[in-house]
Amino acid sequence: MNNRRGRARRKRSGTTPNMPNRAVSCQGSMIITSGLTFVYTPLPCLNASYLSKPEPVIPSPGAHDSDRKKPGSAQFKSIDSPTLQSSLIKLLHCELLEAMFESNEVPFASSRTAPPLSAIQIISKHARNIPSSQIASYVPICRILNIVLGTTTHSPLFGNNQFIPYNKEMADGVEDAGPLKPDILLLSCPPNASVAARWRDVFCAVEVNGNWAELLDQAATYGRALFHARKTRRYAMVIGINHVKKSLRFIFFHRGGRTLTPSFNLTNPKDVKRFYVILKGLQECRTTFDAGYVTSVAESTPIWASATIIATKTCIRGRGNYVAILRRHDKEARHAVQKTHPSSVIVRRSPRFAKVKTSDLPKILKKLELVPPPPEPNYNDRYTPISTSFSEDLEDIVSSFQLASMTFPYGDAVDSIDDIPKHLVVKGGWPRKDKMVEKDMFLRVSGRFGLPKLWGVQETCDNGALLKNVTKHGTSKPASDCELRQHVQLYFGTIGTPFFDIPKTKGAHLALIHAMIGHYILPKSGYLHRDISDSNILGVSETRAWDDDDLAVLQEFGISTSDSMCGMVIDGDLAVSLDEGDVMPTDGEICGTLPFMSNRILQLWFDNAEIIHTPADDLESFVWVGIINALRHVSNPSGVQQRLLDGLLDFDLRIVIPWKGGIAAIYKDGAKHDHFGLLFKWLEVLEQDQWQKVEAGRAREDFYPLYKEMIDIGISYVREQRDLPWEQME
User: I need a surface site. Which of 17, 342, 464, 659 has the fewest CB within 10 A?
Assistant: First the structure.
């Protein structure tokens, strides 16, 4: 049985969910594998003719950004050759189509060393002799590029790397996709011809093609692979060479799209000089930041003993979220005089890793606790290394951690490494600077009941250097719609359990109720979540010293302050701020994860009507989380139960809407079931006219009585409920 689901954030331009591909969703304090996800592609209008099952596409990397209107490359699913490459190219083309810019500036300093006249003459001579055959052109092109590199014997970062003809499959693919075959790579020289290169060890790839449009599309596949190999890249550079026209462009991929330099004619001495100083400037980069990575000057004392990546979202344009669990070194295991961790990690090898399944999370945490302590420090040798265990994907993330650049909730400062929690969950990504609601939201509500505890926030850099003085590609008009994105890492101290893994019905209902209380706190603090799903509700078992505001909330709902918090809401990617006014947002965005979206919003979406997302819609999403979770746990579902589950998880609105609207008729005796009774009581409350009629300008305070009624019903129900294991469900 497939778990089809869709996550939407689209303008009301008349959009429809498209075919799913396997993906993961990034959560605030934990990543939970979310099975299948969707991308929404623009259509002229939303009517029955557009709701048939469309052709498969790949989910957008910016699925959490309202400005994304094209299918993208996030979580590309491998398909059989030869369509693999063509499909990926097509989707990357759509992903970057509206975000292609030109600029005379590059994100690193050009070389101040004037090229020797002899070098210009030799390059021009070789360029004129480039053959018209693509493969035959690789060697003379490498000769041209290496003339520039050869005038310096050693690069601070790249050593004696040289451009070499490659033209074979890489050792690694991206996600489930097959490996690419780049034409030319900048690699350590001499290369080992018997060993395939890895994208992690590549700084720059070269694409050769006689057609610029095809060249740019193919180059995007290399940019995506470079981003996947190193999560904290600021940019990925590809050199595009048109061997027919004897011209060259530097192509910089970044989280806001793609920025190109003008085309340089390699037979023109003036263009050769400009090309020379740019490539020489790259070679002269002295820091990893200049070379395209998030600044990675680590603390003088190593902090992390081990790190495990849980999931990532691979893309070029978009957030590019990643999440990992970090375990801190014990106090006695660190050196007071440990050598600074090297910041240059351009070419570095470490063990490969396998993606972690949701069911393996408890094992991971247990394993992290049981990692043997490093050997006793040898204070006679100030450079004795401490044992660490990082997967390749985590090296860059771990090395970018800096206490000095951290922002803490409520302004609390952490001066000592010993004050860092033993385990932290880091969620990193590149949100748009004008939509950084998640960070502000969790800073304000950190540690509140039903919400995760945010330990700290680190903002490192943005992609502004790639968007300086840019024009739209092919025009001289300045670009005004650039996506300025900020690299942010959120560190959470709360680790939860996937909602599906909560072992008993009563525990699942308590998790829903407590997460609902956390959701109640959000609008009171000025935020609306807009994406309640089974991946964004986690089970926990945690008792905290609640502050006065939480004590008042617990007293309001009749919850003992000694009770453990059993559930929480995470992930604020689609959250919106209400601070500018009390009224509900009327921006027309359609937000949520398709199977859990309220039936009211789905119907408005189907009718192409105005969308006003309210707390009532999020509360209905809690109900669908509970219903779908219960149906999934039925060991021997009846035909009706199976059809119901399939209908709720479908991606066709004509199927989902009737199943949601008719579920009460299907389960007329729902109140008799321990696992459905509470959920149907909640649905009855939500179906009242006062919550279904949503007028523009309705204030958030209008919905507080709804929270009160639903939470009171839930608490009363759970007190009398039998605590059944899922295996005993009917």
Answer: 342
